[in-house]
Design goal:
2 copies of one chain form a homodimer. With 80 residues, the first copy, chain A, is of the alpha+beta class. The first copy, chain A, has a single domain, classed as Phosphoribosylformylglycinamidine synthase subunit PurS (Mth169, Chain: A), CATH 3.30.1280. In chain A, 35% of the residues lie in helices and 40% in strands. At the A-B interface, α1, β2 and α2 of A face α1, β2 and α2 of B.
Chain lengths: 80, 80
């Protein structure tokens, strides 16, 4: 069966993110008040799996082996 | 008041995305069946606004003026 999976990868709290900081400053320069900005990578994937549990397991494995660096990233998996 | 806004920016349908295609192939090399992969940028922003409507309007303006290229991107705004 096909499962639609959404994987969201973000930097752990406290990790410096110069890109996000630059965007936050650019928004402030546009004249808007912005307190906090976090940038995340989101992947929408259609996977083959026998059931929802397996789809979640495969997505976890993809994160660990390919998409996320466990030292600096956290990830959230959502199987639809 | 402070509003938490999530902005998700993705390439329009039909736009080539070599990065997503490379990731799709890397996942296939790990031995998993993957039909479709889309990569999106997601921003979680805390904004100053007088009400929810204004927060949405500001987020739209940030997308148009800074984050998205209307020729190739679509964006979705969610005010929490």
């Amino acid at each position: 069966m096909k499962y639609d999976v959404t994987i969201t990868i973000s930097l752990k709290e406290g990790m410096l993110n110069p890109e996000a900081e630059a965007i936050r400053r650019a928004i402030a320069h546009l004249g808007y008040g912005v307190d906090y900005l976090q940038k995340q990578d989101q992947y929408r994937i259609t996977l083959d799996a026998v059931n929802k549990q397996e789809a979640e397991k495969i997505a976890g494995s993809i994160c660990e082996r390919l998409l996320a660096n466990p030292v600096i990233h956290t990830y959230v998996i959502e199987v639809i």
